[in-house]
Write a structure and sequence with these properties.
With 275 residues, the chain is mostly beta strands. It is built from 2 helices and 15 strands.
Length: 275
């Protein structure tokens, strides 16, 4: 998908029907990578892309490489006659490799319901590989430049800790621990800044011919100034069509007993490595 996890909060709660604006993958090192570089090898793109999961990849874009991540999601919120549907696109996230382990990010544009979410910039630093572990940190910033109904209403700052661990040659686990200072509108229309903790946990399984399956759990501690937490699961499949082009499809479901808060979505997209 994807845009950064900070936009997920605006997507889960707001005046228009909530839409997920997830951030990307937390992949494990690819099985075809060289032992000295868990983010390398012929399947590097699977390990490096942020999409289609919510958590971020622990792998930075390769030096002198630009990654373009684009997607589409359609979400249904509520149930029966009260259900609402919203589409979100193109979930743009552009990542430019500046040097080994360092990338510059451009967040957005991203549209839903005739309006735009806030756009901004980010920076990732991938620590030197350490055995089966890959660790990175992200800093993300968006200004209140979106449409009136979709903007956070103030600048949003997010910090991520991304960790991936290879269980074996084809199976891995990962997590992104995101902490954000953002803003939003309460049910009475008043605006306030608030903090959010959003952890995500993912399991990936690589299959022959460069397919990859994933399943992910995500929890946001708050989705609005006057609203509590929300949890959901995200799962799907990725396929490499050559070393520089990836396609993917995803499904997501909320974890709640409240029919009014339930949502599910479908999505698809692609990632391209340039040049």
């Amino acid at each position: 998908m994807r845009v950064s996890s900070l936009l997920l909060l605006a997507a889960l709660w707001g005046a228009p029907p909530p839409v997920l604006a997830a951030a990307g993958a937390t992949p494990v090192p690819t099985a075809t990578a060289a032992p000295s570089d868990p983010c390398g090898g012929s399947g590097r793109l699977l390990a490096t892309l942020n999409r289609p999961t919510v958590g971020f990849s622990a792998c930075a874009a390769a030096p002198k490489t630009v990654l373009l991540e684009v997607g589409y999601q359609n979400q249904e919120t509520g149930s029966d006659a009260l259900a609402s549907r919203t589409s979100q696109y193109p979930q743009t996230f552009v990542r430019a490799g500046l040097s080994r382990g360092v990338e510059l990010d451009v967040i957005g544009p991203n549209f839903a319901g005739g309006g735009a979410y806030d756009s901004g910039l980010g920076l990732k630093y991938e620590l030197p590989p350490s055995g089966k572990f890959t660790v990175a940190i992200d800093g993300l910033y968006t200004s209140p430049n979106g449409s009136p109904l979709l903007t956070a209403g103030n600048a949003t700052l997010t910090g991520n800790l991304d960790i991936a661990y290879a269980l074996d040659e084809t199976t891995g686990i990962g997590t992104t621990l995101a902490l954000a200072s953002t803003g939003g509108y309460a049910a009475d229309g008043t605006h306030a800044r608030y903090g959010v903790f959003m952890p995500s946990f993912v399991v990936t399984k690589q299959l022959p011919n460069f397919y990859q399956l994933y399943g992910e759990y995500v929890y946001a501690s708050r989705v609005a100034p006057d609203a509590g937490g929300r949890a959901f699961v995200d799962y799907g499949v990725q396929k490499l069509l050559g070393p520089r082009f990836e396609i993917d499809a995803e499904l997501g479901n909320s974890l709640t007993g409240n029919p009014a808060m339930r949502f599910h979505y479908v999505g698809f997209g692609f990632g391209i490595a340039l040049p």
